[in-house]
Amino acid sequence: MKALEGVKILDFTHVQSGPTCTQLLAWFGADVIKVERPGAGDATREQLQDIPDVDSLYFTMLNHNKRSITLDTKNPKGIEVLWRLVAECDVLVENFAPGALTRMGLTWEAIHAANPRMILASVKGFGPGAYADCKVYENVAQCVGGAASTTGFRTGTPMVTGAQIGDSGTGLHLALGIVTALYQRTHSGLGQRVDCAMQDSVLNLCRVKLRDQQRLERGPLQEYSQFGEGIAFGDAVPRAGNDSGGGQPGRILKCKGWETDPNAYIYFITQGPVWEKICDVIGEPTWKTHPDYATAKARLPHLNEIFTRIEAWTMSKTKFEAMDILNGLHIPCGPILSMKEIAEDQALRKAGTVVEVDHPTRGKYLTVGNPIKLSASATDVTRSPLLGEHTDEILRDVLGYSETERLNISESGAIGAIRKIAAA
Ligand code: COA
Known about the structure:
The chain is an alpha/beta fold.
């Protein structure tokens, strides 16, 4: 028995934000029925293809454990089938451009009237306001959610991060909203709307920067490197390079081999409670009592020279040697792992965080498994569906259409050419 067994998701999502959400729900055991346009499907099937005519890794890595039905929602028969799915399912998840769902006739009022228990979950770029009608992709969300203005180096341009906080971040928020609404439905018996704006989700993940904006009004941000460098602050939170976002100063430092290996670095945190151990390990025992270094407050104006000294020590070790020594002393640190190192990490494989999946046209590939581990609802990652692979099965088993009805639907053009029901 899986946690969400029995929950049916009408998955009207595409690209990344919505599919991230429904993939998580599928991993928790929901029956996720992905509705795709006949002949084309989710645009990501063809984006960044590494093997000709084979579903891309972009698609396969975001759509595990789902079923695919092709349905032309601009065909009258197609829209009729879609309404049958609305009546059958518990949750409709969508991330179309603003207005697209309404143009299909799927307003909240109509959905609620047809199935009062249905939860309608949507991702949009912005919430209500001047930009509510805009189409939004990942990097736009990072820019308008405060991430880009606070990422990168003070002297450089604003920068987006490789972590997909706009798309996958919003998908995570939406999944939490959906399970919360499902829980509330156990009391109320009614569905509700769950709306997540990408701007809001990014801002939620940048909460500490809005914290710093308000702290800045009361004085300079002393844990930022620029404070130690004597550089004045402006009126907005600056980009802080690799400075730690918390109250424990941290930096990325070079390790042995940095001249040739772009990832021979370690993140080092000068956590207050282990300061004395840090002094010992880097060979500066007198810093334990020195007035410039003994307390966290005294150290703030000297962070550059402190980290320069620590780096002289980290450069004498590989990142893994440094990590072993520092971990042994409970000094927080983290080697900069490349994607190659992560892909080969046997502990991540064993934990089900990196998973090898077999696909009928692609063969074997690696994916990221479920990062949320439930002790009583294990995740088995199964491959993404081929386009329309389950069309007939869903029409028959979920919607109860007879063979004649399925043939009629097929002949109407509503489910496209590629998966027409054979007369036999
Ligand atoms: N059959 C027929 N038509 C279908 C269909 C189907 N099965 N599924 C979708 N469509 C049509 C819709 O009816 C709509 O057509 P219309 O505009 O004529 O009414 C259209 O496809 C919807 O496409 P749209 O969402 O506008 O796609 P896009 O490629 O132009 O834009 C996004 C992509 C991501 C920018 C946009 O969907 C968006 O802003 N989404 C919300 C924010 C978001 O999730 N962004 C992150 C994506 S990772």
